[in-house]
Specification:
70% of the residues lie in helices and 0% in strands. The protein has helices spanning 2-18, 44-52, 57-76, 79-108, 117-120, 128-153, 158-177, 180-201, 208-211, 224-240.
């Protein structure tokens, strides 16, 4: 009888021991999880979030300054001229550095080799599997866009087609004031300025990112809407003038 009772109790005991450890509340967050995106992995979305919120000032400043200079150059010169000047500037830097290192090696009689050897040895070949993966991922978006275009222009849903017509009508007025490059410049200025201003004056208890940095940001300030309004007006005036 003792053996029979032990046999009947063993499955429950084993099942209890196997599930004894409860999962941590909120899930087991991976070390690379992005605080700003909740449980999502810190991938490209997290990198973009860190970029526009100026987490790394040097990196964001380099990206912002470079893209802004390119857009301003495209607004003043043709695409061919901008591309040609960029390539000439890059070649000037690399050729000058190559000649400088060659002269230094000749004077010091050293055999350090090519200054860019570490970069030349990097394998940048794209495998067929990776190429097909990129193509397949792009085809998903292309097919989705084609279906949306067909649905809108063939009036599958009258309301959606009317919304598109109204939006395009409004865009004619926008195009009469701004051109494409101006809109891109405006979009970049807003992307790299509005989020950081908003984060600075918002309530830190609203997001998980700021909850971990208590005391760094003050509570909601009533002057924030007015500040954002002045900020947008200044950017628009700079672009119009």
């Amino acid at each position: 009888m003792a053996d029979l009772s032990a046999a009947t109790q063993s499955p429950s005991v084993s099942s209890t021991s196997s599930g004894a450890e409860p999962s941590a509340p909120g899930g087991a967050g991976s070390p690379g999880a992005c605080p700003a995106l909740g449980t999502k992995s810190c991938g490209s979305s997290c990198a973009v979030h860190d970029l526009i919120f100026w987490r790394d000032v040097k990196k964001t400043g380099f990206v912002f300054g470079t893209t802004l200079i390119v857009l301003l150059s495209l607004a003043a010169f043709s695409v061919i001229s901008v591309v040609s000047y960029l390539i000439l500037a890059l070649l000037s830097v690399t050729i000058s550095f190559r000649v400088y290192r060659s002269v230094i090696q000749a004077v010091q009689k050293s055999e350090e080799g090519h200054p860019f050897k570490s970069y030349l040895d990097v394998d940048i070949t794209l495998s067929s599997e990776a190429f097909h993966n990129y193509v397949n991922a792009a085809m998903v978006h292309v097919n989705r866009a084609l279906k949306l275009i067909i649905r809108l222009f063939l009036v599958e849903d009258l309301v959606d087609s009317l919304k598109l017509a109204v939006f395009m009508w409004l865009m004619t007025y926008v195009g009469a004031v701004f051109n494409g490059i101006t809109l891109l410049i405006l979009a970049e200025l807003l992307i790299f300025s509005v989020p950081i201003v908003y984060e600075k004056y918002k309530d830190p208890s609203k997001t998980t990112w700021n909850r971990k940095e208590k005391g760094r940001i003050s509570t909601w300030k009533p002057e924030m809407p007015q500040l954002l309004k002045h900020h947008l007006i200044v950017i628009l005036l700079l672009l119009v003038l």
